[in-house]
Structures are given as C-alpha cells and as structure tokens.
Amino acid sequence: MWLNLKFLSSLVLIVGAIHCQAYVYHTFVVKETPYTRLCSTENILTVNGQFPGPALHVHQGDTIFVDVHNH
What we know:
71 residues; three-stranded mixed beta sheet; copper ion binding; 1 helix; signal; Immunoglobulin-like; alpha+beta
C-alpha cells in the first residue's frame, strides 16, 4: 500500500511539473516611425507601433517563440 501511495504521489508531481511549462508565442513588427518631441521629429524603431516595445511575460521553464518582421 505504501509503495502505491508513493508511486501515485510521484506521478502527480511529474504531471504537475509538465503541465506548468507553457509555449509562449509573440509576433513583432519592427519599423521606423516618425516621433515628435519638443518640436523636433526623428525616426525611431518601434515594435508593434510601440516605444518601448511590449513586455514579455513568461515563467521559468517556458518555451518562447518570437516571430520578427522587419519593415
């Protein structure tokens, strides 16, 4: 009985650890965008139209896939 309980608890821990890992997908479009500050306009690189670019929220053990389009 003790061996079955030990095996079952180990199996639950392993399945829980595998389930916690995630695949995270992001698509970034990088392009030059005119930016005006203090009456001066310059081109800056933006990611998805944002500066600074978007933050990546991941956990340790996650697998990250980033698709980057350079325009």
